[in-house]
Design goal:
The complex is a heterodimer of chains A (99) and B (113). By secondary structure, chain A is mainly α. Chain A has a two-stranded antiparallel ribbon. In chain A, 15% of the residues are buried. By secondary structure, chain B is mainly alpha-helical. Chain B has a domain of 38 residues. The N and C termini of chain B lie far apart (91 Å). Classes of the chains: A mainly alpha (99), B mainly alpha (113). Chain B: It is found in: Mitochondrion. Chain B: Keywords: Mitochondrion, Ribonucleoprotein, Ribosomal protein.
């Protein structure tokens, strides 16, 4: 298996585990009605989270090859694997177009 | 003239306040940011953690479990065996990993002295 898939898996579990906590801190930092000191502390706490827990760290990868670019969201495959599978008839509802 | 507009403004404000209360809206005339936007967002955790199939990244563990449960099958981790074989082949060709102190980095350090 592609090592980058394993890395992404770890990122995903971390993001899911810390999401509620992060959103709570985010709410505090974005709330202008709270004192500036508290908001600043919340921002610092947010910055102190491990990098893995940031949602931007998650990358949709190809399930077959682990490729990170040109991945179709609906099929979770990169464009070449998508083509191969579609031509083999393994993707229901996908047809090569002719006109 | 000025006095009347002032009164009208105040009354309009109370009117807005009342309508907001009646229709369950938030009365926020100065547009202060409350951060409620964050609370309104949907949690992405469930979607994010189900992108890969459940068994992804667990194959060695699953294989170990099965081979422990059924030792008579004599299962082998094919990918791992292949990897070890490849390493051996590389070593025979002299392309294996260098020993400690013989790598590129270490050579650079030696040259400087």
């Amino acid at each position: 298996m592609h090592a980058r898939i394993l890395r992404d898996l770890r990122n995903r579990t971390a993001v899911a585990a810390f999401e509620v906590q992060r959103q709570a801190y985010r709410h505090i930092t974005r709330n202008e009605q709270l004192p500036a000191r508290i908001r600043h502390q919340a921002q610092l706490a947010l910055n102190a989270f491990p990098h893995q827990t940031r949602p931007g760290n998650v990358k949709n990868r190809c399930l077959e090859t682990g490729r990170g670019r040109g991945v179709f969201r609906d099929f979770r495959l990169c464009r070449y694997q998508f083509r191969l599978k579609a031509l083999r008839g393994e993707l229901p509802g996908v047809m090569k177009s002719t006109w | 003239m000025a006095a009347t507009t002032h009164v009208a403004k105040a009354r309009l404000a109370t009117l807005a306040q009342l309508t907001a209360r009646l229709f369950d809206n938030v009365y926020n005339p100065t547009g202060v940011r409350t951060g409620n936007k964050v609370l309104r967002q949907r949690l992405i955790g469930p979607a994010v953690s189900t992108y890969y199939p459940d068994w992804y990244g667990k194959e060695p563990r699953i294989l170990r479990k099965i081979s422990r449960a059924f030792p008579e099958l004599e299962l082998v981790n094919v990918a791992n065996e292949e990897r070890i074989d490849e390493l051996e082949r590389r070593k025979r060709r002299g392309k294996g990993a260098p020993k400690k102190g013989e790598g590129k980095r270490a050579q650079l350090g030696k040259k400087k002295k």
